Amino acid sequence: MHAEEREKLILDAMHATGFISYRDLEARLDASPATIRRDLTRLEEAGHILRVHGGAKLPDADRSGDVPGLSGTPFEQAITEHLPAKQAIGRAAAALCAPGEGIMMDGGTTTLQMCTHLGGMGLQVLTNSLHIVDALLAQRDTRVLLPSGTVFREQKIVLAPAGEASMPRFHAPKLFMGAAAVGPQGAMQQDVILVAAERRLIDRAETVILMVDSSKFKSSSGAIVCGLEEIDVLITDPGIPQAMRETLAEAGIKLIIASEMPD
């Protein structure tokens, strides 16, 4: 494949969200990592892209007039699936928080299960999920921050156009995030619109904590949010396949198994 063909494929792949990860590029292009880096360098020098941590984005892309819906399982349905496992994972994740610190939480049904365990800790929480905002507002000592952007009604998530500065000036060492699927290639989402938003959070985090129940460890196609090398901790339930345990260990990821217990 010629360089011009690869560059066109790169730009076409970035059109939907304004961002693409290195892992996604490696999966799409029949080229070595060094070749891909050279392609990105040429595109950046030409002003077509900006290279950022974990991939590349379109410069100052403005898609504010384009507000598609999100694909995947509706939130109200997903929240009932594998609920005991998600509750145990949420409890284990909350135990990783230190009183008074700042954290980030993405808008997943598993991260939502953390909220009931965060009261009394005096946390500052940055989230793009209105479900999580609702759950935290009753906690008088929890400070809640939202990014700017458009509200996606079905998922109650706030998303900004790719390339738009939407995050408040806020330092949070830990990011708690979910995924639609997890495999050797990394964490994936079913909708590419979510990728750029989650990349914004990942790029600001010192520690990335992935929260997924064991049903997410399956062969699946999707937009790659991050490779395993970007994940520091993974919290799941005892149903995780042995092969995936070994893959996570090889990647140096700390694995926490959350057992289901009555509240």
State the strand order across the main sheet: 6-5-4-9-12-14-15
Poorly predicted spans: 61-71
Tell me what portion of residues adopts beta-strand conformation: 15-25%
Helix content: 25-40%
CATH topology-level fold name of the largest domain: Rossmann fold
Whole-number mean pLDDT: 83
Record field, number of beta strands: 15
CATH architecture annotation of the largest domain: 3-Layer(aba) Sandwich
Enumerate how many helices there are, as a single number: 8
User: How many separate domains make up the residues?
Assistant: 2
Tell me the Rg in angstroms.
18 Å
What is the CATH top level name of the largest domain? Alpha Beta
**Distance N terminus to C terminus?**
57 Å
Largest sheet: 7 strands, parallel
What general outline do the C-alpha atoms trace?
globular
| Element-level helix/strand string | HEHHEEHHEEHEEEEEEHEEEHE
- Structural class, judged by helices and strands? alpha/beta
Domain HTH deoR-type: 3-58
GO molecular function, one term: DNA binding
Keywords: DNA-binding, Transcription, Transcription regulation
Protein name: DeoR/GlpR family DNA-binding transcription regulator
